[in-house]
Amino acid sequence: MKSQYLLALICACSLMAQAIIYKAVDTSGHVTYSSAPIKGGKKIILEPLPTMAPPGKATIPADFPKVDVAKQKERDEMRRKILQDELNSEEKLLEESQKSLSEASPEVFRGTDGKTYRNVAKYEEKFKQLTEQVELHRKNIEALKTELTKLK
């Protein structure tokens, strides 16, 4: 009941909120608008802005194609199978990416002076790429699982 009174009060306030606008043009041609009367100004009557009625409920045309329940179930099962196959494939790719990431190590080589060196910059670049691949596969798996739960 309180919400109805509140709604009525808000509507009443919005009607009272309409301001009177005055417009004045000086000798230089500068236009000034004000909510208070201005010397030499004229009262402007603004027409209310046009509004649209909210759209009605969508109606389905009579000739719109319909699918029977059995056909829809068949389509849903096909979609589920495709998503499950993609999920299995992504899980394998994730496993391979994680294995590659765990096996990654800096490239070791011997210099002309006989010392052993590691190419750390190249390793860091490779490590970053492998980490991004692992994260991509994790996100894909999460998205596929979300889609599968929506089907059930």
What structural keywords apply?
152 residues; alpha+beta; 54% helix; flat
Order of helices and strands: HEEEHEEH
What proportion of the residues is helical, as a percent range? 40-55%
Task: Quote the average pLDDT.
Answer: 84
Oligomer: single chain
The main pleated sheet reads as:
3 strands, antiparallel
What is the first-to-last residue Cα distance?
Answer: 41 Å
- Give the count of helical stretches: 3
Q: Please state the CA-atom Rg, rounded to the nearest Å.
A: 35 Å
Strand content: 5-15%
Structural class: alpha+beta
Poorly predicted sequence stretches spanning 5 or more consecutive residues = none
3D structure, described in words:
The protein is of the alpha+beta class and 152 residues long. The chain has a domain at 69-151. Helices cover 54% and strands 13% of the residues. The protein has three helices and five strands; from the N terminus they run H-E-E-E-H-E-E-H. It has helices at 2-16, 69-103, 120-151; strands at 21-25, 31-34, 42-44, 107-110, 116-119. The strands form two sheets. It has a three-stranded antiparallel β-sheet, with no helix packed on it. Helix 2 (69-103) packs antiparallel against helix 3. The protein starts with a helix and ends with a helix. The model has no long low-confidence stretch (mean pLDDT 84).
